[in-house]
Amino acid sequence: MQEGLRRCSDQALRLDLTSSSLSFDAVESAETRIQRLISEHPVIIFSRSSCCMCHVMKKLLSTIGVHPTVIELDDHEISALPSPPPSDDVPSPRNLAPAVFIGGTCVGGLESLVALHLSGHLVPKLVEVGALWA
Questions:
Q1: Quick one: CATH architecture of 30-129?
Q2: What's the predicted TM-score (pTM) here?
Q3: Is a pLDDT exceeding 70 seen at residue 85?
Q4: Within 15-121, where are the H helices?
């Protein structure tokens, strides 16, 4: 396993954002590293350790046939996450995780993911970004 990554469970990896091992540039910031990870993975979830909402997100996506990359962040790393799209119920910075990104775009948390699914827009979006084949 790469330096800077350690297995937390059978489906999650712990990423040490303070390590330069996952970077081409030793001075890459946590924000830059997170942006790079978002751009490299069609579906990625950023979560806190042992987050029950993240578990539900993973279950929903795996039921559909998608296995997202899951990155567990420490509380001090959560602030490096990009802001979710503007809405009336924008969470405070301490509540930004779990956050799912599909095709480089922040979908939001569990409620937003479930709403996208119930509206019938989740599967087409997953197909569009190549995370799921029609």
A1: 3-Layer(aba) Sandwich (3.40)
A2: 0.73
A3: no
A4: 30-40, 52-64, 75-78, 110-118
